[in-house]
Write a structure and sequence with these properties.
The protein is of the alpha/beta class. The protein is built from 13 helices and 20 strands. Helix content is 29%, strand content 22%. It has an eight-stranded parallel barrel with strand order 1-2-4-5-6-7-8-15, surrounded by five helices. Strands 9, 10, 11, 12, 13 and 14 form a six-stranded antiparallel β-sheet that branches. The protein has a three-stranded antiparallel β-sheet with strand order 16-17-18, with no helix packed on it.
Length: 470
């Protein structure tokens, strides 16, 4: 082979590799209520690494009957009346990573479908939502809105008109958002039996900047049998037509077959598992009979759900029989009559390989507070999200937090564990200790580190002499 041909092949390979990894999105939902969780499950804004995600989605805001956006938890979200100011602190992460985009999620499962259906059916209410969304983003410094209607034409919505009204609503939103320089995304049902009812996929895909496909919750305590939460492929126990749709591969191919551009599809990866209580502990294979959800975790406190952080901590003190489903590229664990389908670094990597092979737009996670965000299990914080970042960035690690760190070496004696610790001299700085590493951070402008709450807080909430100097 002459040198010209060799160089041409090398150049082509570099081009192909660069194309595969170019501009992959990492869309991260944050369940803001996790700040109320007990112990090591408490997740605050300061636990977010602003470099691991390209888009952070604040979950959730509600929708009012008049088409306006509703603040669900004013004490948590706002600064008024001595509130915690979560929104301001969340969007303040962009001062650390200027490339980060923050998005307000409106809806979610608990918000239901009826109010969305009524607003979508009324041109005046649709316009009011559009106008209010722009005002909301400008007021709070969000870069856009994620419309999380679960789901058009379902759960009490209008079975006849929701599909058309939803597509029209998104088209009107996109037109105005383009004028305002705002982003528009949506969380959507994945499987054909649900997505086919709710969406005019060509129109929905064209209207959205990107589409967050919820390729999880394929099985759960609503079943009378156990199954993986987020199988990548169909398994041998999937015998009915519905069951054969309940995997990421079939769902993604359905969306593609209906005209969704691959570069707009962001495939969902759960950072939690779904658990069951077996009817007979001796029958613990995939598809075995169950009589309800599994035992709730200590942090999420929801029967049938275990965050990855909850499960990996259990493995430190409990013996579980961990098994793999090679066909589905997933894992499950059994302990007595408890059965859990979960994702770990290995199964997440299977999904990332798939995203790259299919050249999709990137990965979405639900949700950050379920990762091992303190590094309790692995000695490294955010083991799942860190793997996602590396895989979608050609093996590289996230940038150093130069915008929030100084070159002054921290005293190793300041760390007495994993997490945040106060700086000995400056009230607006703190150390984060994990896996033997010490990083010095600065709080967003106007905030001081609270050594009791272990978060950046308002100066009047912090006992520190330096606050008078700000």
């Amino acid at each position: 082979m002459n040198s010209f041909i060799a160089q041409l092949i090398l150049t082509s390979l570099v081009f192909i590799i660069t194309n595969v990894y170019a501009e992959k999105k990492i869309v991260c939902y944050v369940g803001t209520w996790a700040v109320y969780r007990p112990g090591r499950g408490r997740f605050d804004i300061d636990h977010i690494d602003p470099f691991l995600c390209t888009h952070l989605i604040y979950s959730f805001f509600g929708i009012n009957e008049d088409g306006s956006i509703r603040i669900i938890d004013p004490y948590l979200d706002l600064e008024e009346n001595w509130g915690r100011g979560h929104i301001k602190r969340f969007n303040g992460l962009k001062s650390i990573n200027p490339g980060l985009k923050t998005i307000a999620a409106v809806g979610g499962w608990n918000e239901g479908s009826i109010k969305f259906s009524n607003v979508a059916a009324n041109p005046e209410l649709r316009q009011r939502f559009i106008t209010n969304s722009v005002e909301f983003c400008r007021r709070h410094n969000f870069d856009g809105v994620d419309l999380d209607w679960e789901y058009p034409a379902q759960r009490g919505g209008n079975e006849t008109f929701d599909k058309e009204n939803y597509a029209r609503w998104l088209e009107e939103l996109r037109q105005e958002f383009d004028r305002q320089g705002l982003l528009l995304s949506a969380a959507v049902a994945s499987a054909e039996f649900s997505a086919g009812v709710s969406y005019d996929i060509p129109r929905v895909s064209a209207a959205l900047h990107f589409v967050n496909v919820m390729t999880y919750d394929m099985n759960g305590a609503w079943n009378d049998y156990c199954g993986l939460n987020a199988p990548l492929y169909q398994g041998p126990s999937d015998v009915t037509e519905i069951q054969q749709q309940l995997n990421a591969n079939t769902s993604i191919h359905y969306w593609l077959s209906q005209g969704a551009p691959k570069e707009k599809l962001i495939m969902g990866i759960p950072l939690y598992g779904r658990s069951f209580t077996l009817t007979n502990a001796a029958e613990n294979y995939i598809g075995a009979a169950v009589n309800g959800p599994g035992i709730e975790g200590p942090y999420s406190r929801e029967p049938g759900v275990l965050g990855y952080n909850e499960f990996c901590e259990k493995l430190q003190t409990e013996e579980w029989d961990i098994r793999s489903s090679d066909e589905q590229r997933g894992f499950y664990a059994v302990r007595g009559n408890q059965w859990l389908g979960f994702d770990d670094p290995t199964s997440v990597q299977f999904k990332l390989d798939y995203i790259l092979q299919m050249d999709l737009g990137g990965a979405m996670v639900w949700s950050l507070e379920s990762d091992d965000f303190l590094g309790v299990c692995h000695g490294k914080a955010n083991i799942l999200l860190d793997g996602i970042y590396s895989a979608l960035n050609n093996g590289s690690q996230p940038p150093t937090t130069a915008a929030t760190t100084s070159t002054t070496a921290a005293d190793p004696g300041v760390c007495t564990g994993v997490g945040g610790f106060p700086h000995p001299e400056y009230c607006d700085k703190f150390y984060f200790c994990s896996n033997g590493q010490i990083i010095e951070f600065s709080c967003p402008d106007g905030l001081l580190f609270d050594p009791f709450e272990l978060v950046c807080n308002w100066p009047e909430q912090v006992d520190c002499d330096m606050k008078d100097l700000l």
